[in-house]
Specification:
96 residues, alpha+beta, two-stranded parallel ribbon, 5 strands
Length: 96
């Protein structure tokens, strides 16, 4: 019998942007399928760095501060001013 699963949204790319979009859409009640060419979690730098502005976005979306992200080993480096943070994809995916 054929699979008749339907989705409201299909996202191509399970990296930080695609995973976050999928997370938010599923929280809104949509059925989401995320496809990616690689298996997860994987050790890949997501550009390697995120800005303070992005950390503030993560705080709004996931309720995580820079301090809590460091405690969970998601952020593994923080520069001085202006703050820039370093993380791996596998660490970020754990957040979602």
């Amino acid at each position: 019998m054929p699979d008749t699963t339907t989705y409201n949204v299909i996202i191509a790319d399970g990296g930080p942007a695609g995973s976050t979009a999928g997370y938010l859409l599923s929280k809104a009640g949509l059925r989401v399928l995320i496809i990616d060419k690689s298996a997860f979690p994987r050790k890949k730098l997501c550009g390697g760095l995120i800005t303070y502005k992005t950390v503030k976005l993560l705080e709004r979306v996931f309720g995580e501060t820079a301090a809590s992200l460091k405690e969970k080993d998601i952020i593994n480096y923080e520069s001085c001013l202006p703050p820039i943070f370093c993380f791996l994809t596998s660490s970020f995916i754990r957040l979602i």
